[in-house]
Amino acid sequence: MKLTQSSMYALQSLAWLSSKKHPALSKEIAEDLSISPTYLTKILQTLRLAGILKATRGKNGGFQLNRSPTSIKLRTVIALFEDLVPWNFCPFTQTICDGNPKKPCRLHHRWKKVLTAFDAFVDHSTVADLNHAA
Fold it and tell me: At 24, phi and psi to the nearest 5?
């Protein structure tokens, strides 16, 4: 299980924005986080369209959180950039279990615990948990 670069940049940007009291330009965020400004702008627009960020035009404009960081679950953010359904899989199904759910391999139950722990982590963790100042 590995998050895509888009998911990681989205989470980093949200953590960064959660520590700011004012809107920030995508260029400023990109510079501070060493992310391509063009790539980051696409990510920020996705977050804006999802209602996680709001964008303000003008002299003091930029991006800022649209809701409290404690109300933005990591699952919500990650799901914007990747399909989490395939993460709930047994990597041994085809070769060891032979695709038979009634006859799981010996690792199946231990792997299920990993998946359950990951699900609980993204369901119960929020953007506020990512911020060192929180």
Answer: -130, 140
pLDDT band (50, 70, 90) for residue 134:
very low
* pLDDT on residue 5: 96
Digit-coded pLDDT (tens) for 2-25:
789 999 999 999 999 999 989 999
Residue 50, classified by CB atoms within 10 Å of its CB into exposed (0-12), middle (13-18) or buried (19+), is: middle
CB atoms under 10 Å from CB of 133, counted, come to: 7
> How many of the other CB atoms lie within 10 Å of CB of 126?
20
Closest CA to 13 of 124, 88, 60, 50: 50
- Rounded Cα gap, residues 122 and 124, in angstroms: 6
List beta partners, residue 65: 53
The predicted-structure confidence for 78-87, as pLDDT tens digits, reads as follows 999 988 765 5
DSSP-derived letter for residue 55 is E
Six-digit token string for 51: 């209602």
- Domain range 5-130, CATH class: mainly alpha
